[in-house]
Amino acid sequence: MSQRNLQSLLIALFAITLVGASMGVARRAWAGPAWAGELNAAPDATGRGVRSPGGLGPNAVPEIFGPGKVSTFCNFWMKVTNIGVVGNPFTNTSSDPSGQWPGASGVEYLFFAGVWAGAVNPLQTDPTLKRRVSATTEWRPPTLDEKDRIYTTYDGNPGGQRLVDDDSDGKIDEDPLDGYDNDGDGKVDEDYGAISQQEYTCLMRDDTQEAIDTPAAEKHVPLGLQLRQSTYAFSVPGANDFVSIEWELTNINDHELDSVYVGVRIDQDVGPVIRDRYFADDLPEPRVPQGPDPTIAGNPDDPNNPNYPYIRTRNKAGNLHISDVENQGGLCDKDTVYINGFTMIDDDGDQGQTPGASVCMLLGHTIDPTGEKAPRRVGFNMYTFFQPGTPYAQGGVPQNDADRYDAMSRPRNIDPNTGLITQQPPDANEINDYSSLFSVGPFRHMQPGETVSMQWALGAQQVDYLTSRDNLKKRYPKLIDMAVGAELTYRGSYEQRQGIEVPGPEDFGRETCLKKVPGGPTSFADCRDPEGTNRQLLENECTWFDLDCNFCTGVPGYVLKRWTASAPPPNPDLKLEPHDKSVTLLWDNKSEATPDPVQGDFDFKGYKVWKAANWTRPVGSSGPGDDLWSLLATYYYYDAVLNPLKLKTADGRDSVVAQNLLLNRETGEILYPNDVPCVEKADQPGVCDQQEGKKFSFTPSGRDTTIDPYFVTRYPIGRYTYVDNNVLNGFLYFYSVTAFDSTGRGALVAEQEGRQAAVEGEGVVPQDSYATGKNSGKPYVVPNPYRGRADWDLTPNASDPTGTHVDFFNLPLDWTQVRIYTVSGDLVQILRPGDAQTNGKPQQESPTDSQASWNLISRNGQDVVSGIYLFSVESGGKTMQGKFTVIR
Predict the structure, then answer these.
(1) Residue 728 belongs to what domain range?
(2) Among 53, 71, 604, 863, which residue's beta carbon has the most beta carbons within 10 A?
(3) Share of residues in the chain with pLDDT > 70 (%)
């Protein structure tokens, strides 16, 4: 069998298992849509489903190559895949969170959200094939090649600076991060625009063989679409309780598609995973966050008014990033922010265990001011929520493509004048396991190569469950503030950039560039033009229009930069090396070599080293929560030129250190950089890669001297080393190194820092090293006797059904196998150095590792019983024996 055919078979089997067993019934018997498959799996003690035979380990697929990704830089931890869903409905094969808040809390606010794209194929004569929808796992990576994976980047990454010609070819951000040479210059991913502190990008298509073979009650008929997915996580207050998703759909046919709709099928389960059927007591709340009504804002003092205006009053440059906006004759005295979204709440907050609610927000999509090709404004085409088990004809979930397209294309529960959701929430006694669907569009006559986009966000925020459901302003103030923050983050800021068309001096408040295109209008008017007058459009030059009727958008001389929030330096790339009773942390200088994405200066100020221990893997938890993290050290950066460190000599004189270094002010420890080779330029071997930006010197009065340009050399992992000796062999530990900066001047100086975070797959276990003097040079077992549990035990989960292990210590470094027997001589299990442990890592993780773990499962897949067990260790032609006891 060829490698590709083998991979196809594995993926098909994988899809059957996950789509049927996991998506259908990962937590309960599923009565969902046909695409969920027909297979069922009995729920385990958690109610989330049993492990599939041959299931994958923690942090496992659904990324075809790799473990998938989890957004951990913000408070909303969300799983990202490249097979048509975000969230983690694959709970019987992966311990990753689906959408937990705050952090690894074990409280979920999402089961899954799947992409739906529907269209009419004008060339199709068969009416059953004319209107089709590509839904959820009917999206797959373009190929089975390793390059079609999920990519990770961050704002300021070399080659990924926004609105910058990174490769000096006269074009800006022309080569998206996807493993392909999109601009045909022979280079790959050399000039793209990274957006957030933690960003994941990938490609999917609906016409691959794997997509066509997706198990479902109805055969998948592809539309011929490519989907570029980007997810953005920000780590600063005001933008750190949601993850944003951007979908760009491209017609890859040689013919047009008509009446295209893009939608999200979302199941916002709310509650702590440890509670039985936590998902069954939810209630939709479509009234928030949305508003204002652009025609009748309503009375903002009415607590029951669902559409009160979200208005930012005049402020300084902090939000708009440019003071000129405030000085245009008072035109921008109020900045109205329009919100489109809906919420899923718990019925009562689970007696305090569920502090928040799940929020889905529509931020933007492709528009057409004429209304001919796309909607004139951003807004839902339809929205509805479903109860399980209800037929589609009675308001239930669509079961086939005809129903799906009908549901997406038929305007429903939306006010045509305001775009606000009109569907009312159910009564308080109608709690259930609800899911929802919304769509945007239509996008008409989508030509080959044409692209439409949609931007949306998922998050969670606190709710006052003790306040009446109808007192929206008092019950949801933090939730509404988060939605405004999401919209402002998407709206972005204004910057001066060379080589990009910008509004002229007479175009204040006009944010949209229109040009004359074949078949399009030749003139147009906006809300600033006198009634009955139009302005002519030009073919090769922008004519600027105010399409949102807001003087606070569109700034003369400035380009709009979408998706901006103040940002700390990115956390460095970290590598952990377990040793005997120690763990070594190694990291790079990425934090120092990344200019601030807004100011363009190097404002890095230091590192913080964090550690988490005593994690027991509570049900639903994917990693240590905030309460388990402890700060090991803080190192402040001293620049030998701009901010030198002065030390006292033995005779009391000041001595200036002539080297850049990091100082722990509490202990006096200096963290010197290691002498490692620099990172070389990709296109110039032997030449160090340097990042360019501005640099300020620090004085008692604040930042004074500016050095522009200023260059910082990049170094790989190994630039810095920290050793933690306060650990025990065999126990699980987590580490995180965060970076912080300083912003402002004088008394207004403030620090921003990255978030400490880790998921289970990033944990590390210190390893025993062989010593001839230890136990007379013989292997031994810990704990012995094993009395039903060990101090390092974790809560069992799908990929680790016992949650415990005994360890064989002091194995010879050249050991080849450990054989375990009963006292009667029956072979129970065999361990080999290359065998995978439950965490997916090999038994012998390094050449000095003389430790192996056994999860007390026999080679027949059964739990072992109480008794005395014998073991033999083979190495270099020698055999050593020992014994241990298990007491259940």
Answers:
(1) 574-762
(2) 71
(3) 84
Share of residues in the chain with pLDDT > 90 (%): 50
- Is 110 part of any domain? no
Q: Give the pLDDT mean for 190-205.
A: 92
Paired tokens of 254: 């040689």
Distance CA 6, CA 588 (A): 38
Structure tokens belonging to residue 88:
């983690």
pLDDT score for 881: 94
Same domain membership, residue 819 and residue 736: no
Q: Decide: 226 and 205 in contact? Cβ < 8 Å.
A: yes
Handedness of CA 182, 187, 193, 198 (dihedral sign): positive
Which of 700, 729, 762 is the C-terminal boundary of a domain? Answer: 762
Rounded Cα distance between 605 and 408, Å, is 50
Q: Please indicate, yes or no, whether residues 844 and 879 belong to a single structural domain of this protein.
A: yes
Helix (H) or strand (E) holding 753: strand 750-753
Give residue-wise pLDDT tens across range 440-487.
Answer: 999 999 999 999 999 999 999 999 999 999 888 889 989 988 998 899
Q: Of the spans 324-333, 615-624, 848-857, which averages the highest pLDDT?
A: 848-857
Q: Are residues 750 and 791 in the same domain?
A: no
- In whole angstroms, what is the distance from residue 157 CA to residue 189 CA? 12
Name the E strands within 302-428. 310-313, 334-337, 340-346, 356-365, 382-386
Given a contact cutoff of 8 angstroms between Cβ atoms, the answer to whether 189 and 177 are in contact is yes
**Among 737, 762, 787, residue at a domain's last position:** 762
Asked whether the CA dihedral 396, 397, 403, 404 is positive or negative, the reply is positive
The reply to whether 494 falls in a domain is no
* Burial (0-12, 13-18, 19+ Cβ within 10 Å), 844: buried
Token pair belonging to 582: 């120690």
660 lies in some domain: yes
Residue 472: left (phi > 0), alpha (psi -120 to 50), or beta?
A: alpha
Q: Please check whether residues 758 and 806 belong to one and the same domain.
A: no
The three-state secondary structure class of 408 is helix
Q: Residue 237's Cα: distance from chain center in Å?
A: 17
Task: Output DSSP code: residue 299.
Answer: -
703 and 629 fall within a common domain: yes
Q: Which two tokens stand for residue 485?
A: 């923050």
**Pair of tokens at residue 686:** 């032997």
Q: The CATH number of the domain where 838 resides is what?
A: 2.60.40.10
**Number of domains the chain contains:** 2
User: φ, ψ for residue 570 (rounded to 5)?
Assistant: -65, 145
Contact in structure between 224 and 257 (CB atoms under 8 Å): yes
Give, as one character, the DSSP assignment of residue 21.
I
Amino acid, single-letter form, for residue 738: T
50 in any annotated domain: no
785 and 846, same domain (yes or no): yes
Q: What would the pLDDT profile of 239-263 be if each residue is shown by its tens digit?
A: 999 999 999 999 999 999 999 999 9
Listed in order, strand segments (DSSP E) in 421-568 are 435-443, 451-462, 493-495, 512-514, 523-524, 535-536, 543-545, 559-561
Based on DSSP, count helices (H) and strands (E) in the chain, helices before strands.
8, 50
**Residues 718-763 pLDDT 10s:** 999 999 999 999 999 999 999 988 654 444 455 678 888 888 888 9
Asked whether the beta carbons of 20 and 38 are under 8 A apart, the reply is yes
Question: Do 680 and 807 lie in a common domain?
Answer: no
